[in-house]
Specification:
Elements: E1 2-7, H1 11-20, E2 27-30, E3 47-48, H2 59-77, E4 82-83, E5 87-91, H3 94-110, E6 116-119, H4 120-126, E7 136-140, E8 144-146, H5 148-161, E9 165-167, E10 172-178, E11 181-186, E12 189-198, H6 204-209, E13 218-228, E14 239-242, E15 252-255, E16 261-264, E17 268-269, H7 280-293, E18 302-313, E19 319-324, E20 327-331, H8 337-354, H9 379-388, E21 395-397, E22 402-403, H10 404-411, H11 420-427, H12 440-451, E23 468-471, E24 481-483
Parallel strand pairs: 1-2, 1-12, 2-9, 5-14, 12-20
Antiparallel strand pairs: 3-8, 4-8, 5-7, 6-7, 10-11, 11-12, 13-16, 13-17, 13-18, 15-16, 19-20, 21-22, 23-24
The structure holds flavin-adenine dinucleotide.
Length: 484
């Protein structure tokens, strides 16, 4: 029996668990996938938006601005990559100049600090690789970039360290009300809770409708991306937006915290909630739009394409509410959901308090986290850590300089990885130009050793992404395995 069960461990569920873990309250997080941050939180633009875009007066506007401030603090405390690079929304004609002015005014009302309208020439001074046809831009120095999955993981790890129970591979199938409590049926058995928080992203409508009448309609929109090699990482130094439209914030060009260049997304309405495929049309559209902002962008240096699914709804705002007493929706968390997440978590806890839940602060709440990142150490520090543990002297991922020691650290962490991409999300091994071609088998070998499982059980990422199917010699000794 839990006081609170949170359904879904994307960044919204993670932030809610993080804030709840400050209190003496029994909390569980149920996540369908084998890891944290496997939905929209894994595949997005990684921007901490300044907050000039959401309509003044909306919940989204308030939580965006507050969330961006909280994210900066949390990333510093929990050792999550975060760079305040600033953003530029660029205009190409008089109509767009007017639109920028409206965004500026909306941003000022929303409380975004230091916004500035720049001329075309001033914009080009800051970003010489942009199109010479730019007429003006909106500069937001508070916008930042982060690593979205590390952000969610760091908050979840901290929550777990502080007593929250995380259940992975636990898919909620049904919910029923039994007197004063909820009975939550999953593929791993039943859970009971006094309060349910629905943070199931794209599945939030389904979860809502298990016990509530229909209230909103999900409209999935797929956003595809190019990730370019580090050789292109300095093409722009700010987050470059085009003027937003009804369909969204448009195609961006931006540096990543890992040193690459990210280009995308489009916004394609789809019905299949599992369809994260990249399409020829989508990639062509993104290429053309990106060339409008950065004419000489070198898309040939693409090292990976991916796509994320937005859980848009027919409502204009985030859906954060008590659907009925004891059942809270954190639904329709579309962009800027990553930015707003911490403020959403904080707000959810406020809602629980206002509903009469007794929240007593823990005296021994641990609110810090530190990771060893070998390649960021000085030569002397590297020498020291290798002397203490020779595993830091063995490079497993050559592209990103990730050591065996860091992968072992991840395996011993509060939420250990169980897939190759789980290791990637925690250490960056496999993020480089060869995309795991070199380190993949070595990562697999370390995972098997540390988790004491067979290579046949290791997946690339989700449940069905098996890499190896069997031994080439039946009854083999484990050294000779066939890959698919
Ligand atoms: C293309 C794209 C670009 C974006 N860019 C930005 C950006 O730059 N900045 C920004 O602020 N925001 C951005 N966003 C929005 C942001 O990514 C999302 O708002 C945020 O990640 C939503 O987090 P979430 O936790 O609500 O949902 P998710 O991350 O989708 O998490 C939901 C979780 O619930 C789990 N779940 C679902 N059903 C069940 C079930 N039945 N039982 C148990 N678990 C379940 C899922 O497995 C998943 O892990 C972007 C989104 C997309 C798609």
């Amino acid at each position: 029996m839990f006081d609170v069960v949170i359904i879904g461990c994307g960044v919204t569920g993670a932030a809610t668990a993080y804030y709840l873990s400050k209190y003496d309250i029994k909390t569980a997080v149920l996540e369908a996938e084998n890891d944290v941050a496997m939905g929209a939180t894994k595949a997005n633009s990684a921007v901490m938006h300044a907050g000039y875009d959401p309509k003044n007066g909306s919940l989204m506007a308030r939580l965006n601005v507050r969330g961006s401030m909280l994210a900066k603090e949390i990333c510093a405390k929990l050792d999550v990559p975060y760079r305040q690079v600033g953003s530029l929304v660029i205009a190409f004609d008089e109509k767009e100049d007017i639109h920028l002015r409206q965004l500026y005014e909306n941003g000022v009302k929303n409380g975004v600090e230091n916004l500035k309208i720049l001329s075309g020439a001033e914009t080009l001074d800051m970003e010489p690789n942009l199109s010479p046809y730019i007429t003006s831009s909106l500069y937001a120095p508070s916008a930042a970039i982060t690593s979205p999955w590390e952000y969610a993981l760091a908050m979840t790890e901290t929550a777990v360290k502080n007593g929250v129970n995380l259940y992975l591979k636990t898919k909620v199938e049904d919910i029923k009300k039994h007197g004063e409590k909820w009975l939550i049926t999953t593929n791993k058995g039943d859970f009971e809770a006094k309060y349910v928080i629905n943070a199931a992203g794209i599945n939030a409508q389904k979860i809502h409708e298990t016990v509530n009448p229909k209230r909103f309609e999900t409209q999935i929109s797929r956003g595809e991306y190019y990730l370019l090699d580090k050789s292109e990482g300095n093409t722009v130094n700010h987050i470059i937006f085009q003027c937003p439209t009804q369909k969204g914030k448009g195609v961006l060009v931006l540096p990543t915290v890992h040193g690459n260049l990210l280009v995308g997304p489009n916004a394609d309405i789809i019905t299949d909630s599992t369809d994260t495929a990249n399409t020829m049309d989508g990639m062509e559209f993104i290429g053309n739009m990106a060339r409008k902002s950065v004419p000489h962008i070198n898309l040939k240096q693409s090292i990976r394409n991916f796509a994320g699914l937005r859980s848009n709804t027919d409502q204009n705002d985030f859906i954060i509410e008590w659907a009925q007493p004891g059942f809270m929706n954190l639904a329709g968390i579309k962009s800027p959901g990553l930015t707003a997440a911490a403020a959403i978590g904080e707000y959810a806890v406020e809602m629980l308090k206002n509903a009469g839940v007794r929240l007593t602060e823990k005296e021994n709440f641990t609110d810090s986290r530190k990771k060893l990142r070998f390649r960021e150490l000085t030569a002397e520090e590297k020498q020291n850590v290798i002397e203490q543990n020779p595993a830091y002297g063995r490079i497993i991922c050559r592209c990103e300089t990730i050591t065996e020691g860091e992968i072992i650290d991840a395996c011993h962490s509060v939420i250990p990885p169980c897939s190759i991409d789980g290791v990637k999300r925690r250490t960056n091994a496999g993020m480089g130009r060869c995309q795991g071609g070199f380190c993949g088998p070595r990562v697999m070998e370390i995972l098997c050793r540390k988790l004491n499982i067979s290579p046949l059980e290791i997946t690339q990422d989700g449940e069905n992404s098996i890499i190896l199917t069997g031994y080439t010699k039946q009854g083999g000794d484990g050294n000779d395995i066939q890959s698919i």
